[in-house]
Amino acid sequence: MTATPFPVSEIVAARRPHRKDAxxxxxxxxxxxxxxxxxxxxxxxxxxxxRRAGVGIGTLYRNFPxxxxxxxxxxxxxxxxxxxxxxxxxxxxxxEALTAWLDRFAGYMVTKRAVREALNGESDIFQTCxxxxxxxxxxxxxxxxxxxxxRTDMDFGDLLRLVAxxxxxxxxxxxxxxxxxxxxxxxxxxRR
Length: 192
What we know:
Blueprint: H1 7-15, H2 20-40, H3 46-53, H4 57-63, H5 67-89, H6 94-119, H7 124-146, H8 156-167, H9 174-188
Helix pairs in contact: 1-5, 2-3, 2-5, 2-6, 5-6, 5-7, 6-7, 6-8, 8-9
């Protein structure tokens, strides 16, 4: 896996302001939006997001003229972080790299659910994000399969659907979610 930027990374970089103070506000808004979407879903208040970021509502609208712009940018930023994580994990043992990335993917699913609900899948960014995610995470599964650590009767799409299905469930707490995910991933592990 090379350090070549993924298409989604280019989208994220093009949207981010260059001035340091503007970039700081932009990043604070993305962090606040991610947190608000995880807590309240697609109905999160823009005023609450601005408040959490420590900026005025005008700053939010200057960076994200529409609610849709904010949703798309949060989504693209999350996928870009997943792609970067895949690159950071390539030096780990194959099974450890794959499961560490899937843990990050599971966290991403919380935000994705709110964003996808808001955009109804009608965004051009979704295709770019999907392609980038497969290009980043797919090689981690393939490497684990090559060394005999992961089953070979599945593909990356199967694996993402498995984790996404688990993350669509409501859990009592994070510990229960982690246990259920570990049980499912145990079924992905090869029985050499």
